Amino acid sequence: MNQSNFPTFRGSILIVDDSLNNLSLLDRILSRKGYKVRLAASGKLALEAIALTQPDLILLDIMMPDMDGYEVCQHLKASESTRGIPIIFLSALVEVADKVRGFSLGGVDYITKPFEPTEVVARVENQLRMRELELQLREKNLMLRREIAYREQAEVETRLLLETTKFQKEQIEELLLNILPKPIADRLQDRQNIIADSFTDVSVLFADLVGFTSFASEQTASETVKILNQIFSQFDQLSIQHGLEKIKTIGDAYMVVGGLPEPSANHAEDIALMALDMQASVARFNVKNDRDFKLRIGINIGSVVAGVIGLTKFSYDLWGDTVNVAHRMESNGIPGEIQVTEAVYERLKDKFSFQKRGSIEVKGKGQMITYLLLGK
Q1: Cα–Cα nearest to 184, from 250, 262, 239
Q2: Which of 6, 71, 264, 353 is deepest in the core (most CB within 10 A)?
């Protein structure tokens, strides 16, 4: 089920932040997209606003005086009437521990400051699509229950209940398979509470469409989403073709991994072929659509920790130094090139062509020798 097939759900959003500048910026970004936006300058005002009218989504700042975002979240999740409202945390905090705490309290996503408008809109739309599906399922369940109430024969009631259960199970399975790898979705349905695995040898790829943010600022929202969906849909097909696992997209960035959740002996070669095919795909798109997009790609291999984050909304993600360095390979890379670590080069030097870039400064790592992947 492709998310682009969902109609955009123009729900109501409550933004909570003690910074008037942040409130004004987020209000401007989301109001332009047609959302109904309400603002609250403190945690206490937010709770009062929610008591009057419940929003479909809350953007909640963490660092606030008197009552911080974590306390507001705990208060909402403790109440039956408000625990189902999805909460996206807002913060300048980037430590994994801060994010994990937010997710453990019931947050569904996390947006870091300073805000990037395209990312804000993408994350909000994703959560509102999920909210819309949840409300649709709730409405369908309510309709089925009402129908059952009018049935007099126990046999008819039993059949309707079975159909309802089957429908719910199919919807849950379909939704899980669109946001999680199948082995992970199976474990969740088996009621495994904590899913966290260590992998000693995986390949991680980050890719970014250089200049897409400035391009998007000059386009309509529908045109921006249309183009990004065309490009990323091709990437999705390539990940399936090469037996890799797409982890997520953030704005115009794309993350894919090889060697998990099922181990693979050839994951490094598969991820390299994926990177080359991604470049070729963007080149074909440029020719067909008269564009000049360039893809900046970074690859690293090593050990990671992978698991599912969230209580009511699930996200399968990776952590560890391998992931951080792969991201640095992309962010410190060259537009149109595939930058890899020395570990990737040593693994693939007999099967692929490389050019030594030399030593570059990598945040948190110091000087690192890197290479550019040129071809098979």
Answers
A1: 262
A2: 264
